[in-house]
Amino acid sequence: xxxxxxxxxxxxxxxxxxxxxxxxxxxxxxxxxxxxxxxxxxxxxxxxxxxxxxxxxxxxxxxxxxxxxxxxxxxxxxxxxxxxxxxxxxxxxxx
Length: 95
Description:
With 95 residues, the chain is mainly alpha-helical. It contains 3 helices and 2 strands, in the order αααββ.
């Protein structure tokens, strides 16, 4: 499948990108090369290959979920630029 300038323009329109004529030519060639490589990969025999989500086995690297004492309000608010009682004061973002 040969990528055309019209294909690049369609993708750019969907992505709301403005491209120059030079960019369109460049991206058409690059997209064509990518799709050509995907077609080449389709030629591989993948019978008996188990689908994977990672190239190497992954283990959960999270620590155990253990209840611990919190740092407390004074420490939590110690470096706050502005506070009211036990709350951080932040700029209003909703009108």
